[in-house]
Input
Amino acid sequence: MVTTTAPPEVSDPRSRLVSSAAELIHAGSYRAVGVKAICEKAGVKKGSFYYFFPSKEALVLDALDSIWEEFERDGLRASFDPGLAPRQRIEAMFDHAYQTHSRIRRRTGHVLGCPFGNLAAEASTLNEPIRDRVLMAFAEWTALIEETIEEALRAGELDPALSAEATAWSLLGTLQGALLLSKAANDTGCIRVIGRETVEALWGGAVA
Amino acid sequence: MVTTTAPPEVSDPRSRLVSSAAELIHAGSYRAVGVKAICEKAGVKKGSFYYFFPSKEALVLDALDSIWEEFERDGLRASFDPGLAPRQRIEAMFDHAYQTHSRIRRRTGHVLGCPFGNLAAEASTLNEPIRDRVLMAFAEWTALIEETIEEALRAGELDPALSAEATAWSLLGTLQGALLLSKAANDTGCIRVIGRETVEALWGGAVA
Output
């Protein structure tokens, strides 16, 4: 769902390092991408890297902040528009993921998955600060879903036995899992299919 | 859900390389673990490695086969016991994941996640044969879930608007996502919570 942007066109080298790291790691993996490759893509001399960042990990933490800000602005704000009905917001969340990752698939030939989910899987046991940053993003994201589910419960749209918090984590888990399966399949179809089935299972018979 | 086993005690060096690779990569990542470390753990001279395997990738494909066989035997067979009602099978699948990963968490201090899910996230864009092997495992797993959902649909337990295939992918996605979130949180609680909410959302009001 979260995604990285096109090549950096900003002029300051620090920002170019951040966006280059975001893009290269999203397309590959944390371990597969070295400081040298990031510097080359950013057009920054490797010798200057440590003037800007003490380590690759520090750069990646900055890159995660920057990806998150963009995702909040361009993805979450539209999906969780209070003008939409709760069900439409959850549908919009899955649809945004489907559209975004289909676009990336067309451009790069690969489904790259969620930058946060990817790092959770690859680096959680190896880099505690990265795990923390990913968890923070997941918690913020879940809070938006939880508000939506609370609204739907108050409106009597959902089984009152459901917990808003648990359902919110479950929905984020389902989206993250859908992105993971779509990455394994290199095909975004399952994001759409899983999104529809999930909404159907929650809201029941009503046609979208 | 899938998990790797204790240190190798088998005597042949090829099997020791396979189980050492499975264990080290599960605890770290594909890229973070080199042939040298695998050989050291297996007690095999690095010079002999290429007598057994042409590459680390080839070894990892063998390790995935071996993890999958064990998971089929010890995890899937019990969860998808035809003697259980469909709902109980899905509950057993989530419960097996919760129990297994809680045990690993107690032993290692970390939630390590699903070895297949981890590799899907880390290596899908970098190693096509690994991506293929992971996808094959996901497809076999989904087939078992799909049979279960078909049975529940035939018994009239579920909303007839649901597609068995889509629901099966959705359930595997949800479990994979739950494992990913639990790895990010280093806490298995969300596997249990998400499992319960998912079963509740599908089967509705009835108390488990």
